[in-house]
Amino acid sequence: MKLKNLTKALLISSLLFGGSAFAKTIIKLGHYNSDTHSSNIALMEYFKKTVEEKTDNRYEIRIYPNNQLGGEDQIVNGLRNGTIEMGITGLLLQNVDPIFGVWEWPYLFKDNNEARKVFSSPVAKEVGDQMEKYGIKLLAYGMNGFRVISSNKKIEQFSDFKGLRLRVPLNSLFVDWAKAMDINAQSMPLSEVFTALEQKVIDGQENPYALIKESGLYEVQKYIIQSNHIFSPGLLQISLKTWNKMSDEDKKVFEEAAKVYQEKQWDLAIKAEQDVKKYLADNGKEIIIPDEKFQKDMLQASQKLYSNFYKKYDWGESLIKKINDAK
Question: Which of 2, 172, 222, 274 is the most buried (most CB within 10 A)?
């Protein structure tokens, strides 16, 4: 009887004081993409599995798509103050430091392969590492994709841009790009775009292929102009407060999982983009690929933007040279 009581006491003691040995660390990871988006699939199938398996389930990665943990600004703020452990966002941190917005400078990349190469290069790491000054550790660059124009006006040459009423995000970079292209920029929230197109308040809008399909915007558009004017990455990040609590061994696991995530997500995103293009064509949308002269005219018109960037940011010209050298 005494032995039984002693055994019970030891068991209770081990649970009370040794429970941390069996504790599981929960990592909440929020993002804005849908559950069928390539980033969410790659998180579930590769990042989550790799971390949990390699740590013998000492970590549990809980993924929250569709803004379940809040919008991009809330995710970024949560990462910075440590209330959210991980997240995927766009380049919102450029509002704090403009260097993080360099990846969306117009016509920086010619295609997905070139962008992929640069985002795996030392210069991408160099820029990403600077996020630590703001409480965030960058783990991987994912692909959201090139932004293209959807329109009810046929755009086959640069001069066709004149007078085009195009919705752009509430972001000065996009407004400046549109002006340089001689486009009539109309800033409005994404939630208002479908109705504005339907009521012919605007002629078109610009977004990555996947969003044009997922949001149903293609239903009220006739043409897709593959302008590839701005490339948007999706950044896999972890709060520095969470990161600094990890052992070196666990950090290596997360970095390994992030490397796998980046590789697989790009594969999935590139395939998804091709699938969306086929879907849009099958649904009667005419996809216009700009010819060499059209592309050259867009690049030439963007040079005034770069001149302004270089005047505004003392790091601009040297950083763009490093990016171009990495291509």
Answer: 222
Closest CA to 223 of 168, 152, 148: 152
What is the per-residue pLDDT across 37-92, written as a single tens digit (0 to 9) for each?
999 999 999 999 999 999 999 999 999 998 999 988 999 999 999 999 999 999 99
The enclosing H or E element of 270 equals: helix 248-282
Q: Which residues lie across from 173 on neighbouring strands?
A: none
Which residues, in sequence order, are CB contacts of 5 under 8 Å at separation 6+?
none
Global pTM value: 0.88
The C-alpha atoms of residue 304 and residue 311 are separated, in whole angstroms, by: 11
Helix (H) / strand (E) containing 252: helix 248-282
C-alpha gyration radius of the chain: 23
Please state, in angstroms and rounded to a whole number, the distance separating the CA atoms of residues 268 and 195: 31
**What tens digit of pLDDT does each residue of 180-222 get?**
999 999 999 888 999 999 999 999 999 999 889 988 999 999 9
Which DSSP letter does residue 41 get? Answer: H
Q: Which residue from 55, 33, 18 is spatially nearest to 144, judged by alpha carbons?
A: 33
Would the CA dihedral through 174, 178, 180, 184 be positive or negative?
negative
- Rounded Cα gap, residues 175 and 169, in angstroms: 8
Token look-up 């109309």 returns 186
Q: Please give the Cα distance from 302 to 293 (Å, whole number).
A: 14
| Helix, coil or strand: residue 314 | coil
pLDDT on residue 10: 44
* Highest mean predicted confidence (pLDDT) among 127-131, 166-170, 215-219: 127-131
> What whole-number distance in Å separates Cα of residue 87 and Cα of residue 95?
17
Question: What's the chain's average pLDDT?
Answer: 93
Which segments within the chain are labelled E, that is strand? 25-30, 59-64, 86-89, 136-151, 165-168, 184-187, 204-208, 223-239, 286-288
Q: Tell me the percentage of the chain whose pLDDT exceeds 70.
A: 93
Place of tokens 């990846």: 103
